Amino acid sequence: MFWKFDLHTTSHIDTLLEKEDVTLTEVMDEEDVLQECKAQNHKLVDFLVRPQCMEDLVTYITQEPSDDVEEKIKYKYPNISCELLTSDVGQINDRLGEDESLLMKLYGFLQNESPLNPLLASFFSKVLSILIGRKPEQIVEFLRKREDFVDLMIKHIGTSAIMDLLLRMLTCIEPQQLRQDVLNWLNEEKVIQRLVDMVQPSQDEDRHSNASQSLCEIIRLSRDQMFQVQGCSEPDPLLATLEKQETVEQLLSNIFDKEKNDSAIVSVIQILLTLFETRRPAFEGHLEICPPGMNHPSFSVNQSILEAVRPRLKDFHQLLLEPPKKNIMKTTWGVLDPPVGNTRLNVVRLVASLLQTNTLIINMELINLNTLGVILDMYFKYIWNNFLHIQVEICTAMILAMPPAQSETPEINRDQDQEPVRESHLIKHLFQKCQFIQRILDAWSSNEKEQAEGGRRRGYMGHLTRIANSIVHNSDKGPNSAQIQQLISELSEDDKERWEAFTSGQLADTNKKNTVDLVNTHHIHSSSDDEGEFKDSGFHQDSSLQQAFSDYQMQQMTSNFIEQFGFNDEEFADQDDVVDIPFDRISDINFSLNTNESANIALFEACCKEKIHQFEDAGSDEEDIWDEKDVTFAPEAQRRPRSSGSTDSEESTDSEEEDVKRDPFEPNNGSSDDRMEVDTTEGDPKDPLRSNSPVAMETCIETGDPLGVTASMHAEAQPPSSPGGKAGGRSDAEETVTTETVTNGSMKETVSLTVDAKTETAVFKRVLKSYRYVQPIGGQTSAVYCFHVSH
Q1: What is the DSSP string of 119-182?
Q2: Which of 115, 368, 480, 651 is 20 to 30 Å from 337 at the Cα level?
Q3: Kind and range of the H or E element at 496?
Q4: What whole-number distance in Å separates Cα of residue 290 and Cα of residue 471?
Q5: Model-level pTM?
Q6: CA-to-CA distance for 717 and 789, rounded, in angstroms?
Q7: Helix locations, 665-762, DSSP H
Q8: At what angle do helices 136-145 and 176-188 cross, to 10 degrees?
Q9: How far does Cα 126 stand from its chain's mean position?
Q10: Rounded CA separation 268/342 (Å)
């Protein structure tokens, strides 16, 4: 193999570094400088860690390039310098992390005025991040000595690379105690409060977005750490500060007590949504976010957050009615005045998260404000905004499926013999105040009428179908089934009849269509005739088996699917040597198979018989030259020699014998008969060697050969004869020579078999002769012969 040989050529860098006056720029101009550095080329690394070279590398990534440099190579050297410094070479890391003068030069980049160059900022952040990971103690000690470090980080938080650096300090420090010290230090520097101050209308959108994202990531990282490190006794100080009531109140005050700013409002709502996220521990330390209304949280939302949000619910409700001013939006189907906007969409998302907490004070405040009614109005007004529709569906699904809040008072059912049932105020408000059933029926009828007139199907109809199914499902079973049934029974007679007709008619038909599409999927059109015939034969899909397979596909994967995706090295080893092979079971599928498939088997066989033709039925008009010919042995007495000395009295009266006597190699022979001819020059036709031949053929004893080829080949096959008439001193009884000539079309084959009974040996020779006719310009036909001799 090629890797057995040392084909590695000496890098040009080694030759270049032998020069005494080589410069850093000359080295960085080499194409393979990065590869050689990562390969830890000793000469190159020793050159790079020189004090002057290290200082130049840091200068490249912290100072703006000269304006005189051509634009396309302006950031060439800064980029290469960053890659060299972050190549994770131990000598470079040690030199940079232990030299305080180099760290001060690197730190000086933060002291530049805003805004920072985003490209240089990414170089700076990348270099400092790898130092934090490789030299955490030295770098943290250095940064803590800089009193203005946190101020500068907050000042430049609008630059994404600086935000990434702040988060790196929370994730890249592996020693647990050192990480806890960093958290305490950042909390003492009031990082959370300073980030909160960045989210207000007076700041620009970049600061809004990055400050909000930083706070969201701090929340998620802190909660993840709580699950992963079970033995941690100290709480996360940054998370505790964020969950304080005064912190949340400050966030809400920034957006409501000042002018309305779309970017600031959305950023604050993003932080609140992250605070309302509930997570549960998954397998092997992985965390999964609980979808609203789907999983019970492993911990409840901090009550202080809800206390801070409740007084501001009226302000959020007002945003739904009077959002920040938006320009009129023209779409392909009409004009939106005003459009939904990002602000109102996020307010609806916030309402869905608040409903998930299932807190009485929050529920009652939403009922008093009629926030659900306003959201339903938006649902039916903006018929093409599916982002809005899915959030409304989530809200209604949670209201119908959640048990009543713990503080809600029980009410007695209409039948005195039943136990008291705790009723949900939200469900009652939804069915009575919001007229939930009536609005669904009206929207459905309006859509059908519009479609009947040639209009489009409205964009919310799919979600409306799922909402109606949710009502039917929760009225049959669930914690609120009795209350939902009672509220439906209290509808007017007209509305009750419409609802019953709707659920048994239009809704049932729609569900049937959707179920057919999902379970018995349509066959993909194929160009294969076989598939088409089987489809037409009436083979049906077993719905139970198809449903079982669909359920199998929808099973939740194991949590370590990403890590175990692909092949494992142990899979290619002997299984006897592997004693710790992991085995994960996804789930068990229980279904029965009906073994009485006689009808299907018979139908399958019938299709196969129609499709697969037997060999004897497959006829062809054209004759295959390779097909076996049925020939018969003619008695030797009926055949006459084809030599030139033959007389007319020796001719046979059989017409077929006349055709056999014609030489097929004669050019003027127009016969196209493909009958095989066998020419026997020696031996008895009744020889046992001949009689055992599995192929019946005509045998002749002539030695006709127009060109004398056969005779010459026979001469070669015969050993020299002795004067006594014996070949090579042997008698005819000891040696038998058999020759056969087979003619087929343009091919003529002569086979010679010599058998020596004394030595029990046999010599086999075969001569293959082919010819073709050539029509020259003069019109005379000539034959061209080709010979091939094989032993």
Answers
A1: HHHHHHHHHHHHHHHHSHHHHHHHHHH-TTHHHHHHHTTTSHHHHHHHHHHHHS--SHHHHHHH
A2: 368
A3: helix 493-501
A4: 23
A5: 0.64
A6: 12
A7: 688-691, 709-717
A8: 20
A9: 31
A10: 13
